Amino acid sequence: MFDILTSILSHSLSTYPFAKTLTVGDFTPPPPQRRTVMFFHIVLERNMQLHPRHFGARLREKLITKLMKDVEGTCSGRHGFVVAITGIESVGKGLIREGTGFVTFPVKYQCVVFRPFKSEILEAVVTMVNKMGFFAESGPVQIFVSNHLIPDDMEHQSGDIPNYTTSDGSVKIQKDTEVRLKIIGTRVDATEIFCIGTIKDDFLGVINDPGAAV
């Protein structure tokens, strides 16, 4: 799903209004009265170390390739998940590290980051169901929905495929079910963002259940 986000964002920056360009110092959540955005186009800096064997005519290319490998797909508690690097603004002069031969280059680059905020509506895929609730993923973000935040008419059913099912059996939440949910809280660590969600609201809940076709 992370690859899907990358492909969508490659054209969303020029098409959709929710892709916002910021600099490092400008990254702050939008005010409550405005529409929340989750995708940001920002400028970040990183010191990259390169082995002397890469020095030559293709040094810049090697540096950029290593940057993309090291950065894309990672998470920063401050900025969010780095979805894709979109450009290189500058590569500074290298500094030789004594005793190793490695050279450190300061690199300033543009990238798209994904950071969810409270009250945002997401579509996610259920990854695990238990009596406490269920876990779901939306791109790189993991979301937990407690059983207290699931509609009252849905009860947990144990068995080979744990699920939450309505009393008439018409709606079921199980592994791989696609749901629409609302984020009601986030926990931010240095390298992780974890969300709490709810489907106990209007227009939320199951949007596609692969198991229903079986």
How would you characterize the overall build of this protein?
The protein is mainly beta and 214 residues long. Helix content is 13%, strand content 45%. The protein is built from two helices and 15 strands. Strands 1, 2, 3, 4, 5 and 6 form a six-stranded mixed β-sheet that branches. It is elongated. Mean pLDDT is 81; it is low at 4-35.
Write the layout of secondary structure elements.
Elements: H1 2-15, E1 20-22, E2 39-50, H2 59-71, E3 75-76, E4 80-91, E5 95-96, E6 103-114, E7 121-130, E8 133-138, E9 141-146, E10 154-157, E11 163-166, E12 172-173, E13 178-188, E14 193-198, E15 205-208
Parallel strand pairs: 1-2, 9-14
Antiparallel strand pairs: 2-6, 3-4, 4-6, 5-6, 7-8, 7-13, 8-9, 10-11, 11-12, 13-14, 13-15
In what range is the share of β-strand residues? 35-45%
Query: Helical element count?
Result: 2
Distance between the termini: 23 Å
In total, the number of strands is: 15
Low-confidence stretches: 4-35
Shape: elongated
Q: Nearest-angstrom radius of gyration?
A: 21 Å
- The overall average pLDDT, rounded, is 81
Largest sheet: 6 strands, mixed
What order do the SSEs take from the amino end to the carboxyl end, as H and E? HEEHEEEEEEEEEEEEE
The SS-based structural class is mainly beta
Considering DSSP H and I runs of 4 or more, what fraction of the residues is helical?
Answer: 10-25%
